[in-house]
């Protein structure tokens, strides 16, 4: 079964930083296209590992930026200035 990983990143003053991850099953033509794409990517020597490492690094950087934003907005009276 083919699935797509969906990541939602939300920030609100009330709830702070929230990250939701879910897998959506893919069916029909979309599943065949996704499966063909993944197979093609996996056939490129070492590319999958590099992509995973890059995604992890980008996720860490994004979380760091969002945390800094959250810290900056704590003392501003909630108006973002």
Structural class: alpha+beta
Q: Assess the beta-strand content as a share of residues.
A: 25-35%
β-strand number: 2
Q: How many helices does DSSP assign?
A: 2
First-to-last CA distance: 48 Å
**Total domain modules:** 1
**Strand order, sheet with most strands:** 1-2
Please write the string of helix (H) and strand (E) elements.
Answer: EEHH
* Helical percentage: 40-55%
The main β sheet shows up as: 2 strands, antiparallel
Indicate the overall shape: elongated
Low-confidence stretches: none
Radius of gyration over C-alpha positions, nearest whole angstrom: 18 Å
Mean pLDDT: 69
Short description:
This protein is an alpha+beta fold and 81 residues long. It contains two helices and two strands, in the order ββαα. The chain has one domain.
Structure overview:
The chain is of the alpha+beta class. Strand 1 and strand 2 form a beta hairpin. The longest helix is centred in the C-terminal third of the chain and has 28 residues. The protein starts with a strand and ends in a 7-residue tail after the last helix.
List descriptors.
single chain; 81 residues; alpha+beta; two-stranded antiparallel sheet; 27% strand; elongated
Walk me through the topology.
Blueprint: E1 2-12, E2 16-26, H1 28-42, H2 47-74
Antiparallel strand pairs: 1-2
């Amino acid at each position: 079964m083919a699935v797509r990983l969906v990541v939602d990143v939300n920030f609100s003053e009330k709830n702070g930083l929230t990250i939701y991850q879910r897998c959506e099953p893919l069916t029909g033509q979309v599943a065949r296209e996704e499966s063909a794409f993944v197979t093609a990517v996996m056939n490129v020597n070492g590319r999958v590992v590099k992509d995973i490492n890059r995604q992890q690094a980008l996720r860490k950087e994004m979380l760091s930026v969002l945390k800094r934003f959250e810290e900056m907005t704590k003392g501003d009276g909630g108006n973002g200035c």
